[in-house]
Amino acid sequence: MTQRNGHLHLGAFLYPTGHHIAAWRHPHASADAGSSFAHYVQLAQAAEAAKFDLIFLADGSGTRGDDAQFLSRTAHSYVAQFEPITLLSALAAITRRIGLVGTASTSFNEPYHIARKFASLDHISGGRAGWNLVTSSSEHEARNFGFDEHLAHATRYERADEFADVVSGLWDSFDEDAFLRDKSSGRYFDPDKRHVLDHRGAFFNVRGPLNVARSPQGHPVTVQAGSSEAGKELAARTAEVIFTAQQTLDDAVAFYADVKGRMARHGRHPDSLKIMPGVMPIVGRTEAEARAKFDELQALIDPVVGLAMVSMLTGGFDLSAYPLDGPIPELPETNASKSRQTLMIELARRENLTIRELYRRIAGARGHWQLVGTPAQIADALEERFVHYGADGFNVMPALLPDSLNDFIELVLPELRRRGRFRSEYEGRTLRDHLGLARPASRYASREDGKFAVPCAAHAA
Amino acid sequence: MTQRNGHLHLGAFLYPTGHHIAAWRHPHASADAGSSFAHYVQLAQAAEAAKFDLIFLADGSGTRGDDAQFLSRTAHSYVAQFEPITLLSALAAITRRIGLVGTASTSFNEPYHIARKFASLDHISGGRAGWNLVTSSSEHEARNFGFDEHLAHATRYERADEFADVVSGLWDSFDEDAFLRDKSSGRYFDPDKRHVLDHRGAFFNVRGPLNVARSPQGHPVTVQAGSSEAGKELAARTAEVIFTAQQTLDDAVAFYADVKGRMARHGRHPDSLKIMPGVMPIVGRTEAEARAKFDELQALIDPVVGLAMVSMLTGGFDLSAYPLDGPIPELPETNASKSRQTLMIELARRENLTIRELYRRIAGARGHWQLVGTPAQIADALEERFVHYGADGFNVMPALLPDSLNDFIELVLPELRRRGRFRSEYEGRTLRDHLGLARPASRYASREDGKFAVPCAAHAA
User: Which pLDDT value is given to residue A67?
Assistant: First the structure.
């Protein structure tokens, strides 16, 4: 392997019963996990004891999809679970060191609310908050906020760009040393160190200042997930962590080089952004044990759910009249995402998959990188991506919770530690410390201050 | 005293360093309380150990006011403190029984987000969440959300009315027994027990359903604070707790009768709404000790802050050129709230107050009922309001935190308990249990079910 020193960064991407679509049906699953706080306490404390950089929560402001037959047979698609900001805030109180990253969409929120909630979470947690900035592409979410369809892709990203800028400006409302709290003179803060943003833009007019003191990390860590052209540009300009889906080493290396290559134009050093693809590892002491665990989950996939997922990915084509163990029929061209449809059909043709085999192939990890093997095999695969600059770390997506998280902690982490690839103790206290990210300067800091070297580009080297 | 049996309901209204405008300057105050989670943990656990019904957090989505000289000398006016939903969620994790009521405005929020966050908090806390529904009258908040001035009063209340209706509908998205979670059949929920709201109104189009299961209390408890005509009507129709400000027994009794009298028209029993006025008790073992505590706080009021408060209440008239210990000058008529201005001037004239005396009179409790005395005197005053049907309980506003809360717990609560007016143990587990509020029926429940007697009016007797 090529030389690349250092530790992987690891996130624990929590999802009620686990990321596998059928996880809730497993005998070990708590089927009510989506509204069991005790379940999340157990997961967060286990991830913290294992020294993960962060826990990660996805989000959707609405159920994804309308197909009642499909939805009623899955615990996925945001049918019914905790809202991430409330859940992370509660978990902040029962953890001490692990980072807390929550998703919130720029499409149906107001930047003042988002800036305020994540700054508040950063204070509550002593500097462990991260915001995963996403745009919403689901009309099911849009309809909960007065829109009949979702915003066009370009508009979503223009809005996201301005949203991120407003949030970052609001986080700079108070200088680090604005609060004097001098009881004898009666001066609570220095008005010269409090800044009115007065933003007027295409999407938002936001006066500010934010009514939260500058937060322990300066700014909560900004995470992004977009892999489109607009998404990569936004990430290169503003993200500090990217959560992405890459199936192959080649794709991962190309994506990594692409995004990091864009950063110089924005005055940023590549190390100020950590790329952490999602991975669903299913680990056993032997290959056979790993395979058996995987097969057990796969066998639980309800054909209704599997067919609905294939149908969604092929633009709505109904396969329910065809035999499950027969070949995929000719699919008509639809206006669904061409790349996804092509990918699916090519996969099925190339490997001669039956309908059941196809849905089993895609339903498990839902498009993410899936690894089934021994601790050494999984560590090899992760390390390979890391040393070839395909990843700075991984967002671990346990298939079944808590089992798969515990397996990863008990089997894979010791292997990664033996190889010098993962920490045994936290060295710092904040999420920025864990990720090796610099504290951002305030946009109001001037070079003359001598305190902040760079006025606007927070992460320039 | 007239006969009225039963316990008072008590809220602990937490405010960073306490409600007295000068509390942060007191030697016992933690001047950084607004961003000290440890401070709030201590307060919440003390209130829970004392068996308060609930803790209560106010809110403003922006700093109140523009006067930098005033603001920079006060820890009030939402200059910089935790956001309530994040803070309450965190406190949920370190408490077990006490209710958690947070304020969120209907003026600059979306009902889907509010319904979701409070339902999520209700799940996290095992049924202890309450939402204090307010409208925002501050243009300083409006400007953080794209408006140049705040909404007109009538529009605010029309919006609030529709907002409350949408939130309540979203909370009914899933029936109590919608989740089957039947691993063997693969049925996660019963689609017939999940309801699409499909709300289309003047202010909001919200399709639903909410992506949170029906919460432990059915609905989080709805609290309101409005005392205007529109506010009282909204409360009579939808509120379960009212937080109000009443200075005199007569005013309190009149307000109580007025609001409760409106409820029958909405098919509600008066007991399904608890009226809990704010009170700032300053208690000492002797009258002299109580007075000394109060005087100590009063002496800390910065003249700049005191004058600014008088100026705000008299419509912006600048008194800084007049001697502090001289009389109030003739004030010109302004377009400020006439009733407040009249009240202030009448008070000053009637009692021959100097400028300093006037600001000391109003700056402490900021318009709320203020009691300075021994435990017996304070218990007498509270009990008098209770037995005369001026209150069902009180939202206790500690002047200085944690001292005034601890004084109330150590001195007043034992006196109230001796009189049989306050619980020694929690009897139930939820906020509804503590307040004696029935669990609301779902709007989708039919009489034929036999499970819910009343289809739409949740609290009818």
Answer: 82
